[in-house]
Write a structure and sequence with these properties.
mainly alpha; about 350 residues
């Protein structure tokens, strides 16, 4: 029994929480189930894994570029507010679990229980009506870890295997039901690309999909907006992203001044301001235009792994989980619909 538990924990720590490998393996086995040659399956694994890694580079770049600006805004104006960022929350929860003597083993066990339950709910879809398998590993870890802390903090008597099982059941049902609600909206947006959303805002996607047709005209698209000739360039998403971020965040950075950015730590993605260089002409412009860079990188990665996943998952759907959809990162939808949708949504 301990051997099986060890295998499960290894799988949770090394595969489930590494979505690029998880997606790559799904593509690999999906192609094998479809009868593809081994070299085609390996090629699909590499392309899907690299595509997801490219998506992560773009997503990380966007988050890390935002973060120092928001932190500086809070310090300058003494804003007593929290940055709504799941990665901040993940670090806080991890530290909080350590203070009550808990380790990530409880989280990984709950995550694995939840994933197995998700599979079972799809297997019995004739009864459950669940069609989606949640495979966004890093989101699964965030949500399982947050649920673990909430239960352990509120009900100390459940800081045991019973509590871990309850958490696993809760997150497994949450992932299955939430992602299942996003199937129809995602299929309409992507013209039946064959995946659903497995992320933080699944219920919000369902609510928005129900309300939007009643509030607007479904026949009118964002790209149909008639803009003045000099604004028509905003239909190019790279130009519109770069220009709006330059105005929006560039304005905030000018108000804050260079002192807040001389000691930030961002590694290769965001560098600190060097006083020897021009403040606005070099640093502000390059920082704000990086949003357009990372959004373009993200979309490139999305196109790579989604094209492989949607084809190969048919093998899994036909052989193991009939009629199922993979539920992936919300960023996978950014390459569909209007190129300006993400920007307008942000505004």
């Amino acid at each position: 029994m301990e051997f099986l538990v060890s295998i499960g924990k290894w799988f949770a720590q090394n595969i489930l929480t590494k979505p690029e490998f998880f997606v790559g393996l799904l593509v690999f086995f999906g192609y094998l189930f479809m009868g593809k040659k081994i070299y085609e399956a390996v090629g699909g694994f590499i392309k899907a894994t690299v595509g997801y890694m490219i998506l992560n580079v773009g997503a990380k770049g966007l988050v890390v570029t935002f973060r120092p600006i928001l932190e500086a805004l809070g310090k300058e104006f003494h804003l007593k507010a929290a940055v709504i960022d799941p990665y901040f929350g993940l670090q806080a929860v991890e530290a909080a679990l350590k203070t009550i003597g808990q380790t990530t083993a409880s989280v990984m066990t709950a995550l694995l229980i939840g994933f197995i339950l998700n599979i079972l709910l799809v297997l019995f879809r004739k009864i459950t009506k669940i069609r989606t398998l949640f495979i966004t590993g890093h989101i699964m870890q965030q949500q399982a870890q947050t649920a673990t802390w909430m239960l352990f903090f509120l009900l100390p008597q459940f800081r045991n295997i019973t509590g871990v099982v309850l958490i696993g059941i809760f997150v497994g049902i949450y992932w299955a039901v939430g992602s299942n609600l996003s199937v129809e909206p995602t299929q309409r947006l992507t013209e039946n690309a064959g995946f659903a959303i497995g992320h933080q805002q699944m219920f919000a996607v369902w609510v928005a999909d129900k309300l939007a047709p009643k509030l607007g005209n479904p026949k009118k698209r964002l790209d149909d907006l008639k803009l003045p000739k000099w604004l028509s360039m905003l239909h190019d998403d790279i130009i519109s992203t770069g220009l709006i971020m330059l105005i929006f965040f560039g304005g905030i950075m000018l108000v804050l001044g260079p002192n807040h950015f001389t000691s930030i730590k961002g590694g290769d993605i965001v560098s600190a301001y060097d006083p020897k260089k021009m403040w606005f002409g070099t640093y502000v412009i390059s920082t704000t235009l990086s949003f357009a860079v990372y959004l373009t990188i993200l979309k490139t990665g999305v196109r790579m792994f989604v094209s492989e996943l949607t084809v190969s998952f048919q093998g899994i759907s036909n052989k193991i989980l009939p009629g199922s959809f993979p539920a992936v990162d919300c960023a996978a939808t950014y390459g569909f619909g209007s190129p300006s949708a993400v920007l307008f949504g942000f505004l």
